[in-house]
Amino acid sequence: MSEFVVEGVWAAPGRVNVIGEHTDYNNGFVLPIAIPHTARAFVGRRTDGRLRLASTHAGSESVDLAAADLAPGALSGWAAYPAGVVWALRAAGYDIGGADIRIDSDVPVGAGLSSSAALSCAVVLAFGDLYELGLDRIESARIAQRVETDFVGVPVGMLDQMASLGCVEGHAYFLDCRDLTGTHVPFDCAGAGLRLLVVDTRARHALVDGGYAERRASCEEAAALLGVPSLREVADPDAALAALPDGPLRRRVRHVLTENERVLRVVDALRNGDVRAIGPELTASHASMRDDYTISCPELDTAVDTALAEGALGARLVGGGFGGSAIALVDEARCEAVTAAVEKAFAAHSFTPPRFFQAVPSAGARREG
């Protein structure tokens, strides 16, 4: 493959969701932060209608195809996301041609930190600039979401895309997914003597496997039974739960309704400058996802339980579940002890050794060159 054309570099970060899991596709509330880990797209336009894709990751194959031939399911793996952006833009009526796209990303893949959304958002920004499409952040997020839902086949909400595109440094992004309005809430862990520790359990996390879609479908079923457009519209949670049959459906609805309430309490605490107060809400969120939404796994439970036993103020799984990462709110002085304890617990269970890093609220997507 001949040398790639590069007209600029666009970057979009991964995200950690402080709280608000599986609420976005129910038109609820979420509270993500962007993280320093970033996907970068080196992009240049082509006049021959070809789409050429490459990744700097070892073992990644280059792809060369006609942009006009793109269709859902045509590609898999990392290449599906930049290709899906081209397809989604063309499907939305934007007159774009071919391109050279080279990807370089340090967002951990499969860790539940939105590596795919970061990749898609970086490429959407690139095409928006290069072809002067006039996309605002919400429309860019919708295009990136369509890559996931229609091209790749995972029915995600808007959390990941809006976080990658809309977060700002030093803040959490309080987003109302019903109308996509958001405000930036100060989130200063360091100032409170705390760290938000991410534990990448390295347990396989693949939302395309179907568990995510099944839970979204169950929420839509419950909303229909309750006669509301989405679970966000439930006015009386107790009455709604009582109206549903006892079993998984009721428990899943209970998670969504109580998770929205937890997001609001965390936002209030952060606005009052009380970062330490959010710990119990994180832990309650994990219990709800483990017991009601049933999306945890032994590695995630081990990470959370061990962190709490070592003095973490709160901990929970983060992302879609079924593997991936957990977060723990930890006193700075306890960070090393928590890390060591989790490593020891994983070894005792013969789990794959986890990876750790600190989540620092970072800037959202931007052009870098």
UniProtKB/TrEMBL annotation:
EC nos: 2.7.1.6
Binding site for substrate: 21-24, 212
One GO BP annotation of this record: galactose metabolic process
Main subcellular location: cytoplasm
Active-site annotation: 160 (proton acceptor)
Top-level EC class: transferase
Site (Transition state stabilizer): 15
InterPro entries to which the protein is assigned, alphabetical: Galactokinase (IPR000705), Galactokinase_bac (IPR022963), Galactokinase_CS (IPR019741), GalKase_N (IPR019539), GHMP_kinase_C_dom (IPR013750), GHMP_kinase_C_sf (IPR036554), GHMP_kinase_N_dom (IPR006204), GHMP_knse_ATP-bd_CS (IPR006203)
Pathway: Carbohydrate metabolism; galactose metabolism
Residue ranges occupied by any GHMP kinase C-terminal domain in the UniProt entry: 267-347
GHMP kinase N-terminal domain boundaries: 81-165
Subcellular location field: Cytoplasm
Residues the record lists as binding Mg(2+): 116, 148
Molecular functions (GO terms): ATP binding; galactokinase activity; magnesium ion binding
Protein role: Catalyzes the transfer of the gamma-phosphate of ATP to D-galactose to form alpha-D-galactose-1-phosphate (Gal-1-P).
HAMAP family in alphabetical order: Galactokinase (MF_00246)
PANTHER family with a match to the protein in the record: GALACTOKINASE-RELATED (PTHR10457:SF7), MEVALONATE KINASE/GALACTOKINASE (PTHR10457)
Protein name (record): Galactokinase
Organism: Embleya scabrispora
